[in-house]
């Protein structure tokens, strides 16, 4: 039985990422190996062709979640008793890929219609919160007595800057310590992303650009910049790109105008 899907705007882009991850995971040399994504794809009644996801997009849609999964496992290994907030989770199957131990409290967070669809597609034994990530009451029912890992893949560009900063301040004020993983696109990168196939097709509007990652340290008390990951060095890229191609990409990232078009960022706070 398939589920009819009627998402629009930014929420519709989650279907593009689901499709890209599922297709990449069918490859014998997949870097993501997301079998749950492919299984979910078979249960969705939707015309994916209108999102204009090209075959060449499949790797780019898999490399970022692979990086965040790697960071997530590192954090959980270091903090076996922690809270994970998977913000703007969409239809991502990170909880299945990371497979945290029972000592981890995991929350998937997204708009009510997205969470309703998740409940139909996935059998899960963790909590889901059906709210906008910028809702001021988001953390009201979330205990703040453990370190927290916040994963917000593909979320920040869709937020107004002030609402995004307010979200970060609420998180750092609610938990004693933790890490935050999210995307950073500078203004030029946001311009390109706005014209990217699935984003353009969905009609979603982008707003929050992040150029110098240390700017957020000044805007959010206690936040510390840790890592800016270039895709040439992302986990799994050595098995999909030749050494020559990766060296070329590293050269591209040395060009100031191109180095911060879009990349995963990692921040820490607390002790």
Automatic annotation (TrEMBL):
UniProt-listed GO biological process terms: methylation
InterPro entries, alphabetized: Ppm1/Ppm2/Tcmp, SAM-dependent_MTases_sf, TcmP-like
Organism for this UniProt entry: Mycolicibacterium wolinskyi
Protein name, UniProt field: Methyltransferase
Span of the signal peptide: none
Keywords: Methyltransferase, Transferase
GO molecular function: methyltransferase activity
Keyword Phosphoprotein (UniProt): no
